[in-house]
Structure formats: C-alpha cells, structure tokens
Amino acid sequence: MSHATHPAAGGPTCLWLAAAPLSLFLLLAWGLTHHALPWHVDASWVPSLGLSLGFRVDGLSAQMLALITGIGTWIFVYASGYLAHEPRRGRLLGVLLLFMLAMVGAVTADNLILLFLFWELTSITSFLLVGFNHEQAAARAAARQALLVTMGGGLALLGGLVLLGQMAGTWTLSGIIAAGPDLAADPRLPYALMLVLLGAFTKSAQFPFHFWLPNAMSAPTPVSAYLHSATMVKLGIYLMARLDPAFNDLLFWEAILIGTGTLTAVWAAVLALRERDLKRILAHSTVSALGTLTLLIGLPSPGAALAVVAFLFAHALYKAPLFMVAGNIDHATGTRSIDHLMGLRRAMPLTATAAVLAGLSMAGLPLSFGFVAKDVIAVAKAEAEVLTLVSYATVFVNAIAVAVAGVAAVRVFWGPPEAPRGQVHEVSWRMFVPPLAIVLLGIEFEFFPALADPLLLAAARSISPQLGVVELSAALDLDVLLSATGITAVVGLLFFLAWDRLHQALHRLYRLDERFGPAAWYEHLLHGLSRVAAWHTRRLQDGRLSSYLRQTLAALLLLGAFAWWAGDSRPLIGWDWPDQGWAWAVAALLIVAGAAAALLLRGRLAVLMASGLVGYGSAVWFLFAGAPDLAFTQFMVETALVVVAASVLPRYGPSSSRREPWRWANAALAAAAGIGTFLLLAHLQGLPPNAELAEWFGRTSLPEAHGRNVVNVIIVDFRALDTLGEIAVVAFSLLAVLPLLAGLKKRRAA
Amino acid sequence: MSLIMMLAISLVVSAGVMLALSRDLFRLIVGLAVLGSAANLIVFMAGRPGSLVPPLIEAGAGELAAAAADPLPQALVLTAIVIGFALLCFALVLGAWLVRHNGHDDSDRLQASEPLASDPLKPPLMDE
After folding, report:
1. Domains present along chain B, CATH in parentheses
2. Is the CB of A545 less than 8 angstroms away from the CB of B69?
3. CA atoms of A226 and A327, how far apart (whole Å)
4. Nearest residue in chain B measured CA to CA from A699
5. Could you report the per-residue pLDDT of A335-376, keeping only the tens digit for each?
6. Closest CA to B3 of A569, A584, A674
7. A660, A666, A711: which to substitute to probe chain B, counting the most B Cβ within 10 Å?
8. Which of A118, A231, A624, B119 is most buried, taking the most CB atoms under 10 A from its CB?
C-alpha cells in the first residue's frame, strides 16, 4: 500500500459512500430521541421453519449500532483517503458496506437463525477484506485462517442456538433470555452454552482462538480499524452480554467467562511485547481488551454491566483512531516496524495529536473517556470481590495497555527523527480528521458524560436489568480510582521503558508458543487435513473400477450389519412344503446351477449361457408362484439377451486367463454379501405381512380401471407414469447403443 | 419351503458379486446381470409368494379372490426385468466398444475418466 506505486490511479474518491453509515447514524439518533426503547419489528418469512424477520433494538443493540454507524462514518472517510491510490478501492468499499449492513443485522436480529445468518455474513465479508491483497500469500493464509476459525465457531454457534431454541421452545433471542432461568434444570444446557460460547470465543478471538486476529492485520488499515478493533470482534462480546442476564447465575457460565477472559487478557498482553509491527502490537492489545470484556461479563455484579458497556465504548473510541494512526504512519513512511520509527512528531503533527489523545484514553489517564471507563471497571471489580489472582492479572493487563499506548503514541513520535526516509509528510485531511474526530468525541464524553450516559445506562440495563439509577460521572470513586490508575500507570511506565529488553527476555517463551501454541495446532490440523485428502485420493480413489465396487459393497455391508445390530426384528425361516414344492426345488436347482456355472466356467459364451440359466430358473419359479406374466417376460428377455449378447460377443476377443489380484478379498466380500442377503431375507419373512395394498388393487382394479389382470392394470394404469419413465429408459438405452454400434463398425472397416 | 429359495438367492448374490468384482470386463457385465436377477428375486420373495393362483379377476367376480397371489411385487419385478434388460444390452455394447477402442478387456485399466493412483496428477502423499 505504498502511495507512490499508483500515481496515475485517479477516479472517484468514493467519499460520498460515508453518507450510508452517516444516514443510518442520524436515523438512529432521531429514533433514540423520539421513540422509547426497545423497538421491535417482526415480519413473517418462513413460518414453518420458525424463521422470521424478527428484529429487536434495546439499549445494548442501540449502543452497538451507534458504534457501527458512528465509527463506520469516519472509517469510510478515512478509507477514501487511505485508498486514494488503490485502483480496486470500489471492491473493498463495497464489501465494507456489505459488512456494515451485516453487522447492523447481527446486533438487531431477534430471530436465532437470522442472527446466525448475519453472523456468518460478517465472517464471509471479513474473509474477503482480510484477503484483499490476494497477490500476497500471507494475506491469503490470514484470510483463510480467519475464515476457518470464525466459521468453525459459527457452526458450533448454530448448533448451540438450535439446542437453545429447542429447549426454550422459541426461536427468538428475547424469548430465550426470558426463559433463561427455567432452562437451568435442563441437562442439555451446558452443551448448548458451550457451543454458543465456542462461537463467541472464536469471533471475539478468545484464547485459544486468539491467533487469527493479529494475522488478520494483513488487511488494509481501514478494515483493521473497523472490523478487527471496533466492531466485528465485538460481536462475540455482544452475544455473551446479550445472553448474560439469562445465565449469569450459573457457576459454569461465570467460571468459563472469567477464566477464559483473564487468560486471554494476560496472554495477549504478553504476546503484544513480542511484536515489532505497530499494527500487530495494537491487534494483540485488542485481544487483551476483548479478554477483559469477557471477564467483565462473567462478573456477577450489576456494576459489571456498566463496566462492560463503558469499556466497550471507550475501547472503540481509542482503538479505531490508534489503528488509523498506524495506517497513517505506514502510508507516510512505508513501514510499521517500531524499530525504524522515531520522531515523526514534526513531520506529522496532526496524526501525532490524535495518537497522544487516543493513547491517553487507552492508558486510562485523565482527559479521556478511557478514564471514566477505567473508573467504572475498578468500581465493578471492587463490588464483585474478584479473586486476588484476577485482580493482579488485571493490573498487569492494564499496565501493558499503558505501555502499548506509550509505544503507539509516544515512542514513534518523539525522540530524534530517523534518518530521512524519502519525504515523510503529513497525510491528507481525509486521513487525519477521522482519528482526531473520534478521540475528540471521547474527550467530550469525559467532560460531559451526560451526553453518553442515557445510551450507556440503557445498554447496561439490557445486560443487568436490576442496575439502579447511576450517573456515570457520579460513579467516580476517587480512592479506588487513584490507587488503580496510579499503580497501573507506574507499572505501565516501567513496561514501556523496558519494552525492548522484555522483548529479548521473553524470546524463549515466544519460541515455545510458536512451536506448541494454538497457532501451531491450527497448522497441524490444516496439514493433517490435506494429508488425509491426499491419502484418500491416492488409496481410496485409485482409479480402478473393481476398487470402487469393493468399497461400495463393503460400505453397504457395514451399513447392513449396523441395521441388523441396531434393529429388533426377528428372523423367520419357512419350513413348510407347498403343493408346488417340487417345482420350486427345480427352479432353485436351475438358479444355483446357473450361478455356479457362471462363476466357474471361463469361456465367454458358457458364462453367458450360465447366467441365462439363472433367468430361466427364476422364470420357472415365477410360473409356479402365481406369476405367469413374470415368467413369460423373463423367458422372453433371457432369450432376446442371448441373441443380443451373441452378436457382440466376438468383439470381446478371446477370454483372458488373467490372475485376479484381489481374489481372496473378493471371495470374502462375496461370501459376506451372500450371508447378508440370507439374513435380509429371513428378517423380511419375519416382518408381519401387510396385504393392504394388494387388497386395494384387487378391489379397485375392475371398477376403476376396467381390467381383470391386476398386474397389468397396476403397470399401465395405477403406475402409468412410472411405466412411461421405464419406456423412456429403454428408448434412451437404445439411442445410446446406436452410436456405439456405429463406432464398432467403423473400427472394423478401418 | 422358503428356505430353499432363500439359500438359492443368497448363492446367486454371492456369485454375482464375485463376477462383478472381476477385472474381466465381460464377466463384470455378466455379474451385474446376475445381481439384477437376484434383486428381482429378493423383491419377489418379499411379497411372500406361496399361492399358485395368478392375480386375475375371475369372469363374473368384481374383485380379486383372496387366494390369488399378491399383484404388487409382480408389477414391480416386471418393470425391473424390462429395465434390467435395456441396461444390460447397453452395457454389453458399451463393453464391446471399450474393448475395441482400448485394445484390452481389463476394467482396472480404464482411465478415460480418472487416472490411476500412480498418476502424477494426483496429490502426493506427504510422508515425512
């Protein structure tokens, strides 16, 4: 994405596209001031499947919508500047717009299946956006990884949602939340919640699925700022927060959320120290923040709900600008490596201002909305009496956040400027106004919390309905705040100063993570998959007809064996000797003799004749089992077949005495097939006979079809359409034979 | 009595499978024919044959006599016999054509639609 590569790429800047999120944002603002929440829309779609276009907007949805459309507006402005020299920007912006709509759908959907559809749509658009620079192998791999991880989680989510829907007997999210406490007794609940959480954890990059998010940084920066910090990765958080009122009484829910959240927050903070790439540092700190959010959702106190929404809001307001700053630096200098970036303050004063203000918020220092959020979080934790270990962990995580803020906002802008790398200059207004605008908004909320108060409180109440009336500003608890902020600021400063040394010291740990971490499991899994596919293609699909027949037969026999094992029918063998018994015995003898001869004889004509004997034997049986029509047809067909076969037989040449390589396997399969057939027949005889159809045909044949031969009536009248199809098959096979015969003649003439 | 027929049908299936698994194209086709016959016999057997009386409505009678054989399996098998015949004719001619054009009657060496396992077109087994 070097700005110098496409100097000629002109065309429209697509700035006007920002009008789409902006109009949605204004619509939302108008709605919030004129109509009380929640809003509810329900249109029938596929009622038989429980699928309806059900949308519901409550406080939490409204907050997400405000972030999606509000930040989205600035993202589109930023993208029009960032992509000014990118000839394919139309495609990127189109997908970005689609993504925004999918997000809007996902956070407002009330129907479970609808939620899943939008959820997956965000995964697909994310895949397209991460892989935008598809000429680069790394971008393709990152896109595939993001897709496989989030889509795999999406499948789990679908399973979980369907289970929840079945348990609650409703397909609406609001219905399930209302039924939540009653579901606690259902033994399926843990499975359903595990599946749902798998979906949420993969989407929101929780340990051990965190690795896809930093890799997704190969996306263009507007995408990273929008999807991978402010919106999409918050979708999992949104879902967990949405379900929290129903399940936060469960110890299971609380333990998993707090455990996973803490682990993710700490581990991602440690990993952030590994990186030298500014965007990847920010990505790891995003994962860390997502972990903190998960942890906060797991806390049972009502204050935690306020902490969740405040931190969600604050994080979006500082992380998106920081990503934009990283993008500006990349754009201006051509690198994102912190080893080569210093003293950019003079060349890029406005970007630097935005960075410092966003950094303040990230560090939770005064003059920022992050300060307010940090305070609310501290109060919530004090309220919930979290484990000491968790408290220490959060101090560490916050300290790293301070250090990351320092790296992104101070380190790269201060100090002596690097030796001039070409002409480093401030970026266009479309690229520095958006981050500035978003951070200034955050500062405004710090001084006038009343502006954001109603929205955040409404959002918090959708997570924790019992939350009383609190004012965000009044929640300031100076003692708690000063100690928390003071400690983290000091420790964070130490981390910041020791950044490079820590990087060296932790080198071994990172090597261990590379070899045995979750990302390595992912690679092993992917590698294993292609190995299985290769084995499958080589060994099973070996291109030999007899192999395929063997496999098909073996599978069929296994299925039959399973049915036999699982079924409960009783076999029955008839020993009686009817009047025509001698004729049946002769027929059986003919059939067996024919089959045996066909198997044992080598000559082609002999084999053909022997197989004809099976047919003649069958005909004899039909004749003495009340089926003269069948017998007549079979006699005719066998005779005609011999004529046809005899005419093409010479073309096969002399019979070869080839050794069959799979002789014993074939024999075993044949024996198994014979035994299976015998068992099948015995069980068929054991089933109670049902003469209903025979009686119906016998009764209606004459009055309705005016025929006395019931078999013929069935064929030409009751099942006339089938017979037409059969005639068509015979005609088609004849048509297919004609060109083959012509080919045979041509060859002989040549 | 049904025991004799059950045994006979089972043996026919075994022989048919053995023939169909042969590499000889002609035997393979005959095997399919034999398996087709066996399938017809199985369907017929499922109708509990036993009555000698064909399913014809006697002159003067309004409906089928209770002693008559079940007409439904007969109708099904009749259809199957004819279809099987058409299929077999096609298979025999196709087989002859294949022998002519490939110069051999080995079914395992038919590669027009798919290469063999040793073909370099197939993905390699990644052995470490």
Report:
1. 2-52+68-107 (1.10.287.3510)
2. no
3. 12
4. B63
5. 888 888 877 777 888 888 888 888 888 888 776 777 777 777
6. A584
7. A711
8. A231
